[in-house]
């Protein structure tokens, strides 16, 4: 996955230059966790998308391909219709790469979530099944016999769409489609998520991101059509060179390929332009405000947007009982109780089994997290799967190499949850192993716990600050004003040659003050 590697590299470079580890923490992260660990239990407890499905199907041959090609990728067409009858299929894979001892999702829980995703996309789920297996079948994902049985069920229930809970390879998708027949559409979790993203995308950038993700998802599948996608490997059939392509001239195939590549290039070029504009905006914002960024991160539907709205006294960010209600990052200014200002950023929700390459398509959102001084990891504590969700988010944070950004675990929806369970030793142990910092309980809906959360944020930022001692000439009054705005003044004397200041400031401001330093950083 070369794209991912370069993304990861880029990420690690960014992280290794201007982040918290380049600076001395005062008094250090351990203090933070200790202090929060001492907070009393009580109300405030302690504690990584569809391709637009072709109008044809995976089994559609080249007859349709060249005509499909024109509108497959560029359009906003939703490939499933509201009210389509759906059937969902999972597999309990013993060697699941997403499964670890602590984070295992039961297959039924995962299918429950898939059902919610289907409903979010407007599908009506009429049934489900799963197969327990050591490894998925390379040709049909679940066993070929199981797919044959599925074909009968699909007919009986008059199913329009079959959704698999795991990403299907091009060969698996095509083979399953062949067995189920032309009247059924076959989707996988990734395609479904992409489809929901396509429905939700509002800004030009979000739309471009979804489009690029869809095209990248499509690429190997088209490649498969064009090379070996003829057949039924499961039945020993198949033929290299692609029966799919029979009757289709060589030049037509090449034209299709070229067209596809061109479309992808266009989208990427447009994204690059948007990215550059955003970069200019971000740099300006950084220079102008120099405010610390707090990123709200968490599983989808955890209450992140509700929290941003409540914290910032706005109702502007769309929050709803839906998966992936938020796609575009939103940043708001917030004044902390001590008077300091910060920027709070709402982000796209995470979900288990989300391919990292898909997460990385949503760079805009991720860049806000990349800039963050602090991550608020918001959890729907009322969900019976809260612990698995914490782990899934944590895994994505690690895949994005952001695990070193300090985190506060925010157990949200306390109004709806069993407090005894949350405060049980097993729960606390989970947090201690996952979260390096501290935990706070909140209800974004009622506002309970948010004052305490802000106190903790304020203290965390202070601990992430660095102490400076400098002599600022009177001509640098703008810098003095900035120290007042974002820092904590310890001492301030007006001398003949300028203002002598001792203060705690965010690391970014320390860099600007370096040339006026009298002692350097302590
Ligand atoms: N009972 C209760 N419900 C909450 C609380 N916070 C949020 N909700 C509800 O949870 C649902 C999801 O809230 P959102 O704020 O949209 O969640 P999100 O994390 O932004 O979700 P995505 O953008 O989809 O990732 C909404 O119906 C909210 O009203 C809370 O503290 N208590
Ligand atoms: Mg949201």
TrEMBL record:
Signal peptide start-end: 1-22
Lineage: Eukaryota, Cryptophyceae, Pyrenomonadales, Geminigeraceae, Guillardia
GO CC aspect terms: chloroplast
Record domain Hflx-type G: where: 292-465
Claim: Cytoplasm is one of the keywords in the record: yes
CDD domains named in the record: HflX (cd01878)
Cofactor(s) essential for the protein: Mg(2+)
Binding site for GTP: 298-305, 324-328, 346-349, 412-415, 443-445
Superkingdom assignment: Eukaryota
GO molecular function: GTP binding; metal ion binding; ribosome binding
Localization per Swiss-Prot or TrEMBL: Cytoplasm; Plastid, Chloroplast
UniProt keyword annotation of Signal present: yes
Residue stretches in coiled coil: 250-287
Primary subcellular site in the record, as a coarse category: cytoplasm
Positions with a binding annotation for Mg(2+): 305, 326
Protein name: Hflx-type G domain-containing protein
